[in-house]
């Protein structure tokens, strides 16, 4: 199974079950995804625990004051069997700018807004709203 798809599914399932935290196996890509999600305000915090093969990322999920999850939807765009690449002029918008598309670029992972501002394209990893 695709590790990024598993990461997004764990977050989706944790939100549906109203968990405060979810734990996922560590990878640098997932760690960077957490960094972008936190910068955009979709999760409250994250940290790496353990070492070696047992290293994990603990993601603290974020909810509104009335208990609704901040992340209303999160979906994988690029899959292992079908990668989706965009040029700098074709970077997608999510819900007219209310959500965020996360791109893997030559400058690292970044949101669609950052990619448009820097005028670079890349692989669209996922969409969050």
UniProtKB/TrEMBL annotation:
Similarity-based family: Belongs to the universal ribosomal protein uS8 family.
Keyword list, A-Z: Ribonucleoprotein, Ribosomal protein, RNA-binding, rRNA-binding
Organism superkingdom: Bacteria
NCBIfam families assigned: PRK00136.1 (NF001109)
Keyword NADP on entry: no
Pfam families: Ribosomal_S8
Quaternary structure and partners: Part of the 30S ribosomal subunit. Contacts proteins S5 and S12.
Entry GO MF terms: rRNA binding; structural constituent of ribosome
Function: One of the primary rRNA binding proteins, it binds directly to 16S rRNA central domain where it helps coordinate assembly of the platform of the 30S subunit.
InterPro entries from the UniProt entry: Ribosomal_uS8 (IPR000630), Ribosomal_uS8_CS (IPR047863), Ribosomal_uS8_sf (IPR035987)
SUPFAM superfamilies in the cross-refs: Ribosomal protein S8
A cellular-component GO term for this protein: cytoplasm
Biological process annotations from GO: translation
Name of the molecule in the record: Small ribosomal subunit protein uS8
Gene name as annotated: rpsH
């Amino acid at each position: 199974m695709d590790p990024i798809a598993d990461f997004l599914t764990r977050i989706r399932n944790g939100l549906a079950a109203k968990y405060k935290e979810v734990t996922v196996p560590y990878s640098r890509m997932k760690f960077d995804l957490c960094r972008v999600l936190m910068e955009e305000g979709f999760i409250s915090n994250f940290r790496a625990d353990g070492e070696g093969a047992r290293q994990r990322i603990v993601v603290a999920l974020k909810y509104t004051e009335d208990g609704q999850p901040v992340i209303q939807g999160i979906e994988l765009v690029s899959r292992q069997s079908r990668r989706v690449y965009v040029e700098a002029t074709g970077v997608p918008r999510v819900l007219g700018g209310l959500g965020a598309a996360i791109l893997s670029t030559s400058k690292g992972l970044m949101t669609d807004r950052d990619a448009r501002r820097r005028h670079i394209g890349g692989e669209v990893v996922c969409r969050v709203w």
